[in-house]
């Protein structure tokens, strides 16, 4: 199986790693000669994804193309290219249009009676300001007063392109749903942890929710998938606030961070499930019930002074990455580390019989790095925690 991965950033890294675990061959396509995924894929071709002739030359013999980017112009061209050439493109453009806009997503939640953060100004302060079409924590700001609002938007709150809504506190969770209308499979729920800038710094499993709560979240994910007529894979992010799940966002695209955590916890490979859906036209079967292993998936930035536990942006900026088994005691790592480097970054994947075991092992990995590299301290800040 040869899969072309269109985009070599963090989604591409995730796909290339899962492909290796599945025994697939990968072709990474990106214009950036230092794209993070190019050291993990089997082949790399530097090209402009909008140039169809170049794509034709690069993709000879490809069985499936999987987008790993969020440029709507390029995505539309890739879908059209695949249709014209009879090559499956594992992407649902209609679902993506809804989920890539927080404004459109919020309208969907409201129409379905699904709880989500209250809009400003009815919610009062604190409030979260998010660009409607941005991904992850990009552009997110927490405004705690009218003065903060004025400082953030000196020309007044924009009527378009931004979403302002209630800032909620509570644990955050992620759930992936895959399938086609009438046949959806919710996967394993994971818990998310944010850094001081609200970027996801760690993913853990099992998530710690009760069986009743997990069934509630599964039903919520399937209802959202049915509402957008999803044909593919979707990520649902929620916060548990005041005893109620509130949906923060949904994304009908291949995610980053959670797929490798889910694979480490259960052996479930979202890439092969996506391949089954688009190559055979059949929804993948629900995975057999398995005991979930404990997993800690965590990003670190290492300097001579400190180890910083930070969000995934540090990996996006790290240049070409590689997989290393047994890295400082972790099961594996995705890293730009080279012998003698004084500054580097890594995503650690650590497992254990339970989540507590995985957390303990991850702590030992950090202390091992600290001791061997003679680093003074470990810095792990939470949202809004002062430097």
Put the structure in a nutshell.
By secondary structure, this protein is an alpha+beta fold. The chain has helices spanning 10-22, 52-58, 72-85, 93-99, 102-112, 146-152, 211-227, 258-266, 270-280, 313-316, 355-372; strands at 2-6, 25-30, 43-46, 64-67, 127-131, 141-143, 162-166, 172-180, 183-186, 190-194, 200-205, 232-241, 244-251, 294-302, 306-309, 322-325, 332-335, 344-352, 377-379.
Number of domain modules: 4
Briefly note the CATH topology name of the largest domain. Answer: D-amino Acid Aminotransferase, Chain A, domain 1
Could you tell me the number of beta strands?
19
Count of discrete alpha- or pi-helical segments spanning 4 or more residues: 11
Structural class: alpha+beta
The amount of beta strand, in percent, is 25-35%
Uncertain stretches of 5 or more adjacent residues: none
* Oligomeric state of shown chains: single chain
Average pLDDT works out at 93
Q: Largest sheet at a glance?
A: 12 strands, mixed
Instruction: Measure the end-to-end span.
Output: 48 Å
CATH superfamily (homologous) name of the largest domain: ATP-grasp fold, B domain
**Backbone CA Rg:** 21 Å
CATH top level class name of the largest domain: Alpha Beta
Give the overall silhouette: globular
N to C succession of SSEs: EHEEHEHHHEEHEEEEEHEEHHEEHEEEHE
Helix content: 25-40%
Instruction: Indicate the CATH architecture of the largest domain.
Output: 2-Layer Sandwich
């Amino acid at each position: 199986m040869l899969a072309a991965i269109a985009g070599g950033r963090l989604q591409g890294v995730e796909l290339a790693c899962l492909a290796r675990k599945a025994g697939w061959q990968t072709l990474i396509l990106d214009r950036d000669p230092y794209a993070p995924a190019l050291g993990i894929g089997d082949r790399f071709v530097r090209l402009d994804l909008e140039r169809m002739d170049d794509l034709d030359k690069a993709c000879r013999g490809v069985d499936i193309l999987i987008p790993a980017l969020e440029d709507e112009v390029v995505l539309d061209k890739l879908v059209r290219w695949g249709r014209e050439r009879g090559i499956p493109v594992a992407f649902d453009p209609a679902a993506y249009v809804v989920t890539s806009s927080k404004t459109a997503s919020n309208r969907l939640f409201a129409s379905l009676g699904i709880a989500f953060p209250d809009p400003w100004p009815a919610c009062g302060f604190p409030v979260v300001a998010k660009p409607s079409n941005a991904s992850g924590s990009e552009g997110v700001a927490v405004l705690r007063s009218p003065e903060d609002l004025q400082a953030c938007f000196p020309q007044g709150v924009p009527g378009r392109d931004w979403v302002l809504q209630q800032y909620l506190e509570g644990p955050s969770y992620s759930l992936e749903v895959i399938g086609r209308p009438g046949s959806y499979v919710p996967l394993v729920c994971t818990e998310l942890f944010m850094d001081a800038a609200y970027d996801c710094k760690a993913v853990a499993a099992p998530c710690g929710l009760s069986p009743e709560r997990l069934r509630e979240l599964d039903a919520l994910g399937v209802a959202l998938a049915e509402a957008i007529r999803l044909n593919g894979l979707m990520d649902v992010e929620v916060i548990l606030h005041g005893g109620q799940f509130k949906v923060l966002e949904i994304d009908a695209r291949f995610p980053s961070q959670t797929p490798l955590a889910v694979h480490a916890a259960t052996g479930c490979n979202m890439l092969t499930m996506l391949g089954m859906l688009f190559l055979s036209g059949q929804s993948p079967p629900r995975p057999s019930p398995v005991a979930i292993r404990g997993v800690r998936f965590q990003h670190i930035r290492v300097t001579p002074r400190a180890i910083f536990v930070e969000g995934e942006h540090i990996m996006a900026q790290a240049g070409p990455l590689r997989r290393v088994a047994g890295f400082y005691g972790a099961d594996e790592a995705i890293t730009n580390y080279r012998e003698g480097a004084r500054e580097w970054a890594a995503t650690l994947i650590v497992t254990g019989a339970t989540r507590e075991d995985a957390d303990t092992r991850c702590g030992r990995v950090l202390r091992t790095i600290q001791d061997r590299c003679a680093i003074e301290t470990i810095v792990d800040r939470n949202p809004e925690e002062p430097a």
